[in-house]
Amino acid sequence: MDATSKIPHDAIDEPDLTQDPALPPVALDPTIHEAEEAHWTPVKIAIWVAIALLGGLSWVMLAVVRGETVNAIWFVFAAICTYLIGYRFYSNYIQKHLLRPDDRRATPAEYKADGKDYAATDRRVLFGHHFAAIAGAGPLVGPVLAAQMGYLPGTIWIIVGVVFAGAVQDYLVLFFSMRRGGRSLGQMARDELGRVGGTAALIATLTIMVIIVAILALVVTNALAESAWGVFSVGMTIPIALFMGCYLRFFRPGKVTEISIIGFVLLIAAIVGGGAIAGTEWGAALFTVDKVPLAIGIIVYGFIAAILPVWLLLAPRDYLSTFMKIGTIGMLAVAIIVVRPEITVPAVTEFATSGAGPVVSGTLFPFLFVTIACGALSGFHALIASGTTPKLIEKERQTRFIGYGGMLMESFVAIMALVAALSIDQGIYYAMNASPALTGGTVQGAAAFVNGLGLTGVSVTPELLAQTALNVGEETIVSRTGGAPTLSVGLANIMQQVAGGSGMMAFWYHFAIMFEALFILTAVDAGTRVARFMLQDSLGNFFPKFKDTSWRTGAWLTTGIMVAAWGAVLVMGVTDPLGGINTLFPLFGIANQLLAAIALAVCMAIVAKRGMFKYIWIVAVPLGFAAVVTITASIMKIFSTVPSVGYFAQNAAFSKALADGETSFGTATSVAAMEAVVRNTMVQGILSIVFVTLAVIVIFTALQATWNAWKTHSNATNEDLAVPSRIFAPSGIMATPAEKATQALWDARPSTGKRKTREH
Amino acid sequence: MGVATAVRSAVAGLAWYVKGVMGEDAYEKYLAHHESVHGTDAQVPVLTEREFWRDQTDRQDTNPQGRCC
Question: Nearest-CA residue of chain A relative to B33?
Answer without folding.
Answer: A115
